[in-house]
Fold:
Amino acid sequence: MIRQAAIELFAAQGYARTTTKEIARAAGVSEGTIFKYFPTKRDLLLAFFTPEIFRPLTAIFDVPEPVDDYRVLRHFVFNLFTLWQRNRHLIRVIVGEAVFDPEMVGHLNRLTAPLLAIVERYFTRRIRGGAFRPLHPA
Structure:
């Protein structure tokens, strides 16, 4: 409830222009309730940085041999676009903040690093198996 209200307001007004009072009003709670769960507005924004957001994508690469690479990659891209669509407000806020805040870029990199590592391991394995040309998987 609080997180949903926050992300909608952050996306509509921007993170800096959104107050915790506005978030509380939109969520139907007191401002004190927000601070009970999130000590600062920044903590509320950072609460969206969870690896669980990518869990549906990481599972795609856990496939046994033989592998249909076209099917795996098509499934990955489809699910990636679905994830972007489902989280478009969050992505807008994160990218908007990352433009002005190098610390946010660090959080974003830490969030995406595990997914990128899984994708890289998949390509490394498939290159070694002869399915792809020997290019640097990153």
The helical segments are 2-13, 20-27, 31-37, 41-46, 55-58, 69-86, 88-100, 102-128.
